[in-house]
């Protein structure tokens, strides 16, 4: 029992330290900023609806948010943001298994977007935690933390050393024992 309590406290501290607490202080950019002149009409409509659903979700209007986010998914089944925000809604309603299903789809669609993957993994961790699946929760929280190291490695491979250093420092701030981040910092030019 003490072990599970420790894991629960560990996971909560990771969420708070990583800035992934349910009520985020970080202001998210509007998803409509992703719409470019060459964006397909379906994708543009889905992103607009997802932004609208996100606003309803943040204001606590879960019924309207649900309606709008479902429409966004129907219009464009490849919109990862719609799946993510719909998963957040389901999680807030206590529908954790349904949230995990939506997050599995978002994880696939966000495969090349490390920032959003870290959000997906954090929410997966919270859902597993709510379902008393502490080992799964711990694994997902660890994945969320490892994203910063991966981002650092990506910047390093593009010779973007300042960005790489910033990401490795973020990883080390969250976990001083992160070997990949420490090794990355040592590889960077001084």
Describe it for me?
- The protein is mostly helical and 190 residues long.
- Among the domains are: 38-110, Tetratricopeptide repeat domain (Serine Threonine Protein Phosphatase 5, Tetratricopeptide repeat, Alpha Horseshoe), CATH 1.25.40; 133-190.
- Helices cover 74% and strands 0% of the residues.
- It has helices spanning 2-18, 41-59, 62-75, 80-92, 96-109, 114-130, 134-157, 161-174, 179-187.
- Helix 4 (80-92) packs antiparallel against helix 5 (96-109), helix 7 runs antiparallel to helix 8 and helix 8 packs antiparallel against helix 9 (179-187).
Largest sheet: none
Instruction: Output the CATH class name of one domain.
Output: Mainly Alpha
Kindly state the mean pLDDT as a whole number? 83
Our measurement of the CA-to-CA distance between the termini, rounded to an integer number of angstroms, reads 47 Å
- Secondary-structure element pattern, one letter each: HHHHHHHHH
Global outline: globular
Q: Architecture of one domain in CATH?
A: Alpha Horseshoe
Helix content: over 70%
The number of helical elements comes to 9
Low-confidence stretches: 1-27
What are the key terms here?
Serine Threonine Protein Phosphatase 5, Tetratricopeptide repeat; globular; mainly alpha; 190 residues
Secondary-structure blueprint of this entry?
Blueprint: H1 2-18, H2 41-59, H3 62-75, H4 80-92, H5 96-109, H6 114-130, H7 134-157, H8 161-174, H9 179-187
How would you summarize what this structure contains?
By secondary structure, the chain is mainly alpha-helical. Helices cover 74% and strands 0% of the residues.
């Amino acid at each position: 029992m003490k072990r599970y309590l420790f894991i629960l406290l560990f996971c909560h501290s990771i969420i708070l330290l990583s800035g992934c607490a349910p009520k985020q202080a970080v202001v998210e950019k509007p998803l409509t900023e992703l719409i470019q002149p060459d964006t397909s009409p379906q994708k543009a409509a889905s992103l607009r609806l997802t932004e609208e659903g996100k606003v309803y979700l943040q204001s606590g209007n879960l019924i309207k948010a649900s309606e709008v986010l479902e429409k966004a998914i129907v219009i464009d089944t490849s919109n990862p943001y719609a799946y993510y925000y719909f998963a957040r809604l389901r999680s807030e309603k206590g529908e954790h298994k349904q949230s995990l299903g939506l997050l599995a789809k978002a994880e696939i669609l966000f495969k090349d977007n490390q920032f959003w993957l870290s959000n997906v993994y954090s929410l997966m961790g919270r859902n597993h935690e709510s379902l008393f699946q502490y080992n799964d929760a711990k694994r997902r929280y660890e994945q969320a933390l490892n994203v910063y190291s991966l981002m650092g490695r990506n910047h390093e491979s593009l010779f973007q050393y300042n960005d790489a250093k910033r990401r490795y420092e973020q990883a080390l701030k969250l976990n001083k024992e992160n070997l990949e981040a420490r090794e990355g910092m040592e590889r960077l030019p001084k």
